[in-house]
């Protein structure tokens, strides 16, 4: 893989993706083989927005590679509070670490920050833009459970503001997939993502409810309707809660249906689904560690060569 | 002497931007960052009768020769524009605007949450599509009323 920075799933080719997933499988099978590989290496964490899974799994990944982390900490306690630009923060912190992981509330922030640093920068979410490492662990989970080619996937919920959706839809254009998008009209995919999917020749269909398409799906990827992404709170209240699944609804699905969710969930997947064979979202979250270990290994290994 | 030349006189040296879609002349000046503050003499004709366009705008900038790369950005709002370089009252070069691959520092991103709209040391930059422009930072596509986004950061 030849990338200095990972800012968008759009930059990942099929070969890139398979390289990361294969490496993740190797690491998952034999984590001891890399447990001391990056002793003395440091990963810088710049999270300008709250994060649980992404931040903890990157920390766990780096530590399981033998390295360590340096964490900017909450924005309230950093120089950002004093008005420092993102560009300056990134330039300062690159001197403290061998690679950076950044989450920021503005779209395009990772791309911009990457232009100011020489160490690899990984986008861990830029506003409603992209979240490419979530996509890599999503693809890993899909490959383990359903296979990546000849796949029929339904992506449901907040398609407009959901960065995991944008990245996943882009990445899936590298595979033979039929993508179904299920959302209210107000939360449909942004124009730029639809543009790229059409450009990539991907077969996509849009729906306003799940019932009709559910029996055809191999994978159902559910996302949270995110209140914080709505400039207009009345719009949020109008659509929240409309796109929920439970065990009763899933009785109409294929026995092999894989249900995924980037988490955190609120009430879009009822807890009675957790006990079914369909539930794959906790496994998906756990896959964040080997996949991020693989990505860090490929990026840091390249830097060290 | 034609009707157009009666309205806006010939210039000795400089650039004439002709065949601008009617009503876009002031946007052309904005996009080229020409506001007279450097003392240049600028003549503007708005809604001048035209055989080809019905109504057109014309801009004449004296003592300044605009380069192809400077004027190509006009293709976004004035795709039929022609550029005439004038030396000693004669047209010495005449060419059309061509769509550039990218435009930088000219347009503001339409997405208020784009990093280029924050106080960061970065210029806006757009890839030019067949039917619009696309922010290279946040991917937002602008198709309509591109002139409204002139300003650049």
Principal-axis shape of chain A: globular
CATH H level of the largest domain in chain A: which superfamily?
Answer: Aspartate/ornithine carbamoyltransferase
Q: Regarding CATH, which class of the largest domain in chain B? A: Alpha Beta
Distance between the termini of chain A: 13 Å
What is Rg of chain B? 16 Å
Kindly state the percentage of residues in helix of chain B: 10-25%
Q: Compute the number of helices of chain A.
A: 11
Low-confidence stretches of chain A: none
Mean pLDDT over all positions of chain A: 93
| Class derived from helix and strand content of chain B | mainly beta
Q: Per CATH, what is the topology of the largest domain in chain B?
A: Alpha-Beta Plaits
How many discrete structural domains of chain A? 2
Main beta sheet strand tally, sense and closure of chain A:
5 strands, parallel
CATH H level of the largest domain in chain B: which superfamily?
A: Aspartate carbamoyltransferase regulatory subunit, N-terminal domain
- Mean pLDDT score of chain B: 89
Helices, strands, pairings?
The complex is a heterodimer of chains A (305) and B (153).
Chain A: H1 14-29, E1 42-47, H2 53-64, E2 68-71, H3 86-93, E3 99-104, H4 109-114, E4 121-126, H5 132-145, E5 151-156, H6 163-172, E6 177-182, H7 191-199, E7 203-207, E8 219-222, H8 233-239, H9 247-250, E9 258-260, H10 281-286, H11 288-304
Parallel strand pairs in A: 1-2, 1-3, 3-4, 5-6, 5-8, 6-7, 8-9
Helix pairs in contact in A: 1-5, 1-11, 2-11, 5-6, 5-11
Chain B: H1 3-7, E1 14-21, H2 25-31, E2 42-50, E3 54-62, H3 68-72, E4 82-87, E5 90-96, E6 102-104, E7 125-129, E8 132-135, E9 141-142
Antiparallel strand pairs in B: 1-3, 1-4, 2-3, 4-5, 6-7, 7-8, 8-9
